[in-house]
Structures are given as C-alpha cells and as structure tokens.
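tool_call predict_complex ligand=guanosine-5'-diphosphate
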Amino acid sequence: MSLPVVAIIGRPNVGKSTLVNRLSGMMDAIVHDEPGVTRDRTYRSAFWRDRDFLVVDTGGLVFDDDTEFLPLIREQAMMALAEASAAIMVVDGQAGPTAADEAIATWLRQQSVPVLLAVNKCESPDQGLIQAAEFWALGLGEPYPVSGIHGNGTGELLDALMEFLPATSELEDIDEIKVAIVGRPNVGKSSLLNAFVGENRAIVSPISGTTRDTIDMVVERDGQRYRLIDTAGIRKKKQVDYGPEFFGINRSFKAIRRADVVLLVLDAIDGVTEQDQKLAGRITEDGRACVIVVNKWDAIEKDSYTIYDYERHLKERLHFTDWAETIFVSARTGQRVEKILDLVNTAAEQHKRRVSTSVINEVLQEALNWHTPPTTRQGRQGKIYYGTQVTTRPPTVALFVNDPKLFNDNFRRYIERQFRQQLGFTGTPLRLLWRGKKVRDMEQSPNRAVKV
Ligand code: GDP
Ligand code: GDP
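tool_result ok
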C-alpha cells in the first residue's frame, strides 16, 4: 500500500516549510529522498485522525519578471503534482494576495488535482478571518486561515484535506506485498524469480505511468499476493559490457524505494561484499523491511559449524541490518526457496505494525528502571517524558525528552535494544526520534491525537 501524497505549493516565504513541519507534527525524519532530478523534493510523513499520508514541499515557486514560471521549477512542481492526491496552496495572509499568488492559482486551476487554499500567518484571532477572506479572489474556493507557527486552523485544514485522500478501503483492497529482489549480478536473482514464478500462480502486470520496461509480476500463494518489483530489471542480462562495478545500482535503488520488503540476495560462495553492504545501507536508510537470502547454499562444503560461522560473518559485515532474518537457500535445488515467502510475510507484518502508546511507555519505564539516562558533568540529566509510535512502514517511535543532546549514542542504542527485545520488530528497521519539544508545544500540534 503506497501512501497518498499531498503537495505543498506557493511562492517563497509564505511559510510552506513551517506548515509542513506543523502538518508532519512530531515527525521530522526525511522519509524518502530521491537522488537525481527530484533531489530537492523531500517527503515527510504525516497523519491525521486515522490516515497516514506523505507531504511533499515543492520548494518555492519562483517567477520571471513577466510572471512566467522558470521551466525547471515548474517541472518540479508538475512532478510533485503528478503523484499527488491533493495540493495545498499556501499564501501569506499578512501580505495579502500578490500577482505571484494569482499566477500560481491560475496555473493550479488548470491542473487536475484538487487544491485547498491555506492562508498562513493568520494567528491573530480578530484579523485572521478577514485576512483569509481576501483570498476568495484567487478562485480556489474557501480560504482556510491557518498559522504554521502557532498551529491555529490546521485541524480544519486537515479535516478538509481528508475528503480528497483516497478512501482507505480503496488502498487496502490491494493488499499485496511489494517485494524487490536485489543483489549483485550472478548471485541468482533471476533463478530465484523463476523459482517463485514456477511454483506460484503468476500474473504479469505492467505498472502504469512508468518506463515501459519496468514490469512487475504478481504471484499468489495461500491467498496472499506478492508484487515482484521490476522483474524486467532482474531478467535483463548483462549483454552490455559494463564495468565490474556497475550492476544497475540505480535500478536497484528504485526497486528498493517501491518495496515493502527487500530480498537482499547474496552469493554464499562470495560472502558479503562491499556492494552488498551498500545495498543493505540503502535498505535501512529507506526504511524498508528486509530478508537476507544467502543463495547457492548447495555449492558450499558444509560441516556442522558452517551456518553458525556464516551467521557470524553476516553479523559482522551487515551490522546495520542485523534486525533482518537470514535464510540459506538454493535456487538450483529449490532447497528452502518456499520458506522465503514466510519470512517476507513476517517482515511485512512487522513493518506495518502499530504498538499502543501504553505498551511503548511500559517498555520505556522498564528500560529506565535498569538504566538511568546519562548526567552531564554540570549535573544535567536526560529525562524521557514519554514515547509514542507516530508512524509505520517502518515503525517510528517519537520519544519526548527534555533535551536530545543529553542522550549519547550508547544510551540511544540501549533504548533501541530494549524496544527490540521487548517488542521484536523482526525484519524491519525501527526508528527512534528524540524530540526536545516542550509539552506545551505538543499540545498545540494537530497530530496530538496519536492513533494507537
Ligand atoms: P517558505 O519559504 O514558504 O518555506 O517559508 P518558511 O516556512 O521558511 O517561512 C518564511 C517566514 O515566514 C519565516 O520567517 C517564518 O518564521 C514565517 N512564518 C511562517 N509561518 C508563519 C506563521 O504562521 N505566522 C507568522 N507570523 N510567520 C510565519
Ligand atoms: P542474477 O544475475 O543475479 O540474476 O543470477 P542468475 O540467476 O542469472 O544466476 C547466475 C548464475 O548462478 C547462473 O549460472 C546460475 O545457474 C547460478 N546459480 C543460481 N542459483 C544457484 C544456486 O542456488 N546454486 C548454484 N550452484 N548456482 C546457482
């Protein structure tokens, strides 16, 4: 299930980034950061009531003197709009409507995306509505007075926004797990793919709107569908003589981004190489679930210590993904190949798992009973007020503390280990956000009503 995207659009300095911070509330981790042309688009996760969505700030739309969009920036905004379910146009209520606002509004009215108009900087209770009313002239419907800084009006804006997001049921009907098979050339990706497709009912399903040679395949087992991402990329053989370093890493990165669960395929004979580590790093950064598949297990001479030794080797070389489960298989003999999907199921489940605030705080309390947070030489001690899970895919827990700087890496790792030990989360990255917000600020956050 991919999350609906909301694009934030407006000229510079109207308060777009402030509003994005507000909408994404306590979350300020960058969720997706795409390299290349779209580098300056940053996706942030947000949720309101029971809906998760992504907010993308398009950057300020800039004009030439003759109110012509600079083509590149317009293209950026177009790309953001193309994938958006709705857009929020932000204007500055204290400045009033400008020619630039009108040009953007005119352009937005020609797009097929529903647009909400947020009149920002309307924190004044008497002036706000009057300031907002001036923007009826833009022809985008009702102007919503808001204040990105203070949080006023954002609840109404978000309520209105929910009407435009696709219904949850529409999204959840497609209850398939997206699986990317990645790894260096010759580790056996296409052999594995053939094994999956051979044993399960397969449907080739080109995905719309992307490059023609990106083809996904859907296989079904026990009523569960798995979308194998970019199978064309896996099958495409190395007819072209790329250098040894080249293995379509960008293509792999793209597949990782689209996946729920990534199968990181290793060659048992080679062990973990630098390129494997690079892929593992990317999987963690992107917050994808992962299963490590050690293929060609048939080609290894085994004695009773081999799996144990191998696991130790993997732990040392892939410590960033030490939360992932490992399976030793042979695509050639079919040994354990069927079991891979069981691990995929577990990882996908954990990736979208929500834990209630009370359980999170029980774990925290227990952890703090064993280890008090560090104290500085000046006698300042870290305090954790409480924690709550703010989003899933991957599970992300915000911890509200007096000052994040008071918590060193050792202590942070300790807390993370406690969460893992108590709650599992096998197969998925787990993110902890150390928030220094004061309790007073949080009470104004529109995201206060955390879904648990
Ligand atoms: P962007 O360029 O559209 O992303 O705008 P920013 O978020 O960087 O904000 C531009 C300026 O407007 C900053 O100085 C903010 O402090 C200020 N600003 C943003 N939101 C508000 C608001 O709700 N009220 C007031 N008074 N100022 C705001
Ligand atoms: P890809 O480049 O990652 O798609 O790898 P392929 O699936 O094309 O496999 C590369 C080579 O490894 C081929 O010669 C396969 O026959 C061989 N191979 C794949 N899986 C296994 C396996 O489980 N055991 C052994 N011994 N060889 C394998």
